[in-house]
Structures are given as structure tokens and as C-alpha cells.
Amino acid sequence: MHTRDKTAVRLDRFICKHTEHSHQTSRRLVASGRVTVDDQVLTDPRHAVSAFNTIRLDGQLLQQQQAHYLMLNKPAGYLSATSDPEHTTVLELLPPALRPLLHIAGRLDRATTGLLLLTNDGSWSRQITAPEQKIPKVYRVTTAEPINPEAEIRFHQGIHLARENVTTSPAQLERLSDCSCRLTIYEGRHHQVKRMFAAIDNEVIALHRESMGLIRLDEQLQPGEFRELTEAERRLV
Q1: Residue 67: predicted pLDDT
Q2: What pTM was estimated for this model as a whole?
Q3: Which among 68, 107, 150, 218 has the fewest CB atoms less than 10 Å away?
């Protein structure tokens, strides 16, 4: 069951609601192995199902949730959240019908722009965000001061973050100009890039995510625009 779905119901009650069978008959149908959820036979009538499950009775499709995998070019000023009482969220850039279905796979700070992935496939998003996967995330960074020539070595060695008392994984820094670079990191700690630069006495004034793993932001997408990932892009995770 997807953790964001607030409409989860027992499987027997779902069968009762979506067929002509009584509640008692629905329980027997489930217990006898005639119902599948996401192509698996379930025999527990109490099993919770949601709008994210594909459900069949005797092979007949009762519900199928379309999977969505979206790439959004996030503008500055939007919060990476599904809802917020104070700030405009990235979900408000999407059609209203899609908003309740989606969650964010790899958040960005409100001021940060660029690639944001949204989906209703929890298994797929976990592949992207699980720390042990060490998915590379590439950012274009603009700094207030010229980047110290030693920054490449320091970042590769790892930067100590006092709040968590940890040292970041080795990161790759490619200088683009005196005050800009392309940075690849393999973690997603809170404000990590900004804190890494603060540790070498520099300030990030603009941050733009270009890619996550092998999925790159479509250059044709203007800020605030989105599109579905292609099948080939979905398989890049």
C-alpha cells in the first residue's frame, strides 16, 4: 500500500464495492484465491489495497492505476512538497487530477532549480533515493566568490559536516569558470551542496540540478514545464 494514499480499504470491501457481490461473498472470493493484487494471489480479505494497486477477480480487471513518471524543470521559489500552508509547491505546477497521485523522488531546496522527478511508483522512486544506491546527482553551481583551486581535492577527499558529524562521500568538481562549476555528489543530505561550499568559505548563490543517475533534464523544458519520462529513461534507473 502506498503510504500517501488516504483511501486504503480492505480487499473484501473493495470487491464488494466494485462488483455485485455481497460483503460475505466477497470475503469468500478472496479466501478462495480468486483475487489478484498486482498479479499476486491474495487470500487475506483484510489486506489493505489502494488506488495504486491493480486488482482482478477471476482475471477480470477491476482497477488499474496508470503509472506516472514525470520530469519537471523546477523553477526557483517552489517548495518540493506535496502541500504546504505557506509556500507554493511544485505539485501546483501539475494538472489537478495528477496531484493527489504523485510523490517526489529526490527533493530540491526551494531556491534550487532543475531536474525534479515525480512518480506514483514507490518501488521505482526508492531505487533513485535509497542512500545505498549512491545514484550520482549532477549540479551546476554558481558561487559568490571565485572557487578555490584546492576545492577539487577537498571535495574529492570529502567534506566534514558538523551537524551530522559525518564526512561526505568523494565528490567530483569540474570548474567551468572562476565562480561556477559542475559538481557530482552521491548523497542527498540537507542543503548538502551549500554546506560543502560553506566549509571552504564560499557561498552558493545559484544551484541547478542537471541529472540524477543517467536521467538528464530535457533542455527543451522551460522552467515550470514537465513531461512523462520515455520508457528508455525509466529504465536508466
Answers
A1: 82
A2: 0.74
A3: 150
**Which DSSP string do the residues of 17-76 spell out, in sequence order?**
HHSS--HHHHHHHHHTT-EEETTEE---TT-EE-TTS-EEETTEEEE-PPP-EEEEEEPT
Choosing from 5, 38, 39, 109, the catalytic residue is: 109
What are the C-alpha distances in Å from 210 to residues 68, 72, 108? 21, 11, 12
Rounded to 5 degrees, φ, ψ at 178 are: -55, -40
- Is there a contact between 89 and 104 (Cβ–Cβ < 8 Å)? no
Which residues, other chains included, contact 214 with Cβ-Cβ below 8 Å and sequence gap of 6+? 236, 237
- Residue range 141-184, pLDDT digits in tens: 999 999 999 999 999 999 999 888 999 999 999 999 999 999 99
109 as an active site residue: the answer is: yes
